[in-house]
Amino acid sequence: LPTSSIAFKPYCFSIVELRLFIYLFIYLFICLFIIYGFYFEVYQCQMTVTYSSSCSNSTLSTFARLLLLWRGSVYKIIYKDLLIFLLLHYTLNLVYRHALDTSQQRTFYQVSQLFAAGKEYIPITFVLSFFVNQIASRWWTNFLNISWPDRIASIIGCYIRGNDERARLIRRTLVRYINLSALFVLRDISTAVKKRFPTMNHLVSSGFITETELKMHELAVETHSSVYLFWLPLQWAVNLVDKARIEGRIESMVNYKNMIREITRIRGTIGMMSALDWVPVPLVYTQVVTIAVYSFFLICLLSRQFDLNSDETLEASYFPFFTLLEFTFYVGLLKVAEVLINPFGEDDDDFEVNYIIDRNIHISYLIVDDLYDHLPPIKEDMHWKKDGIKTPDTKSKLNPKRPPFKPSVAGLEIPLHLQSVVESNVEVRGATDRRKLSMADLVTQVMNMRAIRQNSVQHNSRILLPTTKE
Q1: Domains in the chain, number
Q2: 8 A C-beta contact, residue 134 and residue 336
Q3: Which of 49, 94, 226, 430 is 20 to 30 Å from the Cα of 76, by its Cα?
């Protein structure tokens, strides 16, 4: 067969074609990322992301799976800022390549060098880390001060006895007042609760307050307009407890004091929630951190256009990979602080305050009314009259990884030659002397103790303090 005289020449991409291919790939990736983000933002709009069950065991893929989550992720809170940053970065890149002549490009490069030297003076790591630490501490304090009426409801059900309608009315009214006071504060600090109860009439229609109580509350607010009367329902609850004591429904003053003490404790937690909303992190500190982060990356738009460590070829980078890593870390931390600064909003990781309201009122009525005085018949358990108790295990629990608990020094064996008892007549200075001992005094005492102990062993001196050789 005749062979062809035409040699095969592989196709080589030009620099322009390669550059366009990279830009097209980045553009498609950004478009897919936007579509992915909007899909999950529309169809997954719940709050408080829970992932504890996903990392119950430490495996190779435990945290890798967490990186694929969208709701509450760092990708969701920074992707808009990231797209704006990339848009500005490539705009400057294209301007440098296609809109500037050689002298202007050299000036552009010199400005980039100037900005690269200036960004080192921004202490972004220290400022941002301290700010996030303060915000996270306040976030957890807010959660610890959320009102949970389970304890006071159990106390009310235990101390106010009676199956008649009057006793039932007192118990239900007390827990309703306690939940109403917390709802007053949550309605004023949470946008989610405010949207659910925009007016006081919505509280009436929801059963948290009656028409008569609402008129009394409005009259008190008008009379004392300079005071925040979120605690007014708690004052009603205290008065009702005192009335129940007068009626003889509280057996002892100890029970009465315990109920009053628990109501005042709840008043303190609700007041702390209001105070944390009243006195936030100083605005000037928030502004300083925000300006520092965004100024840093505005400078990076120019300073990261080139590899300043290489020779001056004026060849700009195609994709700012390490700059985007920095952007993810720093802007991600700033966004974390923005999410945690008000945990009663509507972000993914904000508190489920509407669920807490429903849960608290439901649990309160269950404890003091529906489950009041309900008790199953008392019978002998399956271990009755048995000496040893052994609970059965499932197949997943067989061959446990950990042995039964045993104190750390319980199995330590002391050698026999160190167990013999010796005696010493040394009195340690400083036991009764109140003055502060110097290092020289301590060394002298230790040397004296050793010398006396050796002499006591050799000459069988008088025994005062039994000790071991160690």
Answers
A1: 3
A2: no
A3: 94
